[in-house]
Design a protein that fits this description.
By secondary structure, the protein is an alpha/beta fold. It is about 40% helix and about 15% strand. It is built from eight helices and eight strands. A six-stranded mixed beta sheet has the order 3-4-5-6-7-8, with helices on both faces. Strands 1-2 form a two-stranded antiparallel ribbon. The longest helix is centred in the C-terminal third of the chain and has 17 residues. It starts with 13 loop residues before the first strand and ends in a 6-residue tail after the last helix. About 40% of the residues are buried.
Length: about 240
Amino acid sequence: YYPTPDEQVSGGSQVPGISGGFRNHRGLRNLSVTIELAKKIFPNVERITLMGHSAGGAGSTFGTFLVRKVFGNEVDLTSFNDAGPVANNLEKKQSIAARENDWDYCKFLPTSIADCQLILFVDWILKNDFTVRMAFYCAAADAVLATYLEIPVLADVAPLYLAGNKDFLKFLQSNYDPLSVNHPGRFNSFIVASFQYVFDRTVNQRIPFLLTHGLVQSLEFYTELTDTFSGSQFS
């Protein structure tokens, strides 16, 4: 268990962070030492699942290359990103620039990635790590992530994924569906018909999940996710 008490992101590295220096971003260093500690405690593991919520969800995606560096290529590696922002709203250039300046993460990305686009880094990881598997989970009306992306959502409409939140759903699908198409069996997104923020607030609800290929029930989602983490491919 690796907490983020100073609200830093797991890919940030800036001291001091934000104008005025009231918050330092040591996310990359914290994640690095956490993985190194895990290696010391569990030196001979065969399977690793990197999971995180919100900003930690983004860290669970971007941190896969750190796991590979420390544990090597033979480890069965999966990542479960729970509502973490790994795609930018490209229409909000000022906000993107502010975060890039605040967290200073662009310097760690491969030079081949245009304009420091994080979603392209996810694609880069999948192209260069041929066995890593990733899952992205998000509510169709997640007001927290939507606010971060500056996309308005309504939390009192039904069905949530069809009315009132089409812009947010379209953003999610336009960014994550291509990853599923380009990396079949190794990436998939799960978008739940809910306004609840992060996975642990929705696990007890019997609600349908919207995938790229249609609706599935909760039990099917859990089965598919478990199968993915145990080595089989997405359906």
